[in-house]
Amino acid sequence: MEIERKYAIHNLPGDLSQYQYKKIEQGYLCHNPIIRIRKSNENYILTYKSNFGLKKQVDGGAIINNEVELPLTEDAFLTLKKKTDGNIIHKTRYLIPLQAGVTAELDVFEGLLTGLIFVEVEFEDENAANEFNPPAWFGKELSSDKRFSNYQLSKLSSFEELGL
Q1: Segment 17-37, tens digit of pLDDT
Q2: Alpha-carbon dihedral of residues 162, 11, 62, 146, nearest 10 degrees?
Q3: pTM (2 decimals)?
Q4: How confident is the model over 81-102, as pLDDT tens digits?
Q5: Which of 44, 62, 97, 109 is the most exposed place for a label (fewest CB within 10 A)?
Q6: Which domain holds residue 137?
Q7: 14's torsion region: left (phi>0), alpha (psi -120 to 50) or beta?
Q8: What CATH number has the domain bearing residue 35?
Q9: How far apart, in whole angstroms, are the C-alpha atoms of residue 6 and residue 48?
Q10: Cα–Cα distance between 132 and 47 in angstroms, integer?
């Protein structure tokens, strides 16, 4: 299960080169349920996400999905990449340690979405998500704003289409 909250940011948390990062390329084969392919550095992953059987997200609440990840070969990734719906998303994900053992995943988008930056935090359970106190560099919570789902972002042809 995946339990996460998503935020805009006020400012970057210092020099990003001090943090570990992943170069990510991802695309979507289906929206409901979500079937995603991802290249993360040199790892290839097929992800199935669904909220079937889970309570509906409420405004201000964490995003909760059933999630299954399966490894792919590079050849399988490249074959499936040709079948994606929408644009391929390119981003660098910086892994920034926070309090209580959680990690901020700061996504800096590239290509068509250059200029978009937001942060996600994943939690072990819903209580931890609800009790989370974001650091000062976090901005407005975006968890309930469907425009910021990566699937919706894959439908855009530019960052400006978000109207921010």
Answers
A1: 999 999 999 999 999 899 999
A2: 0
A3: 0.92
A4: 999 999 999 999 999 999 878 9
A5: 97
A6: 2-162
A7: left
A8: 2.40.320.10
A9: 19
A10: 26
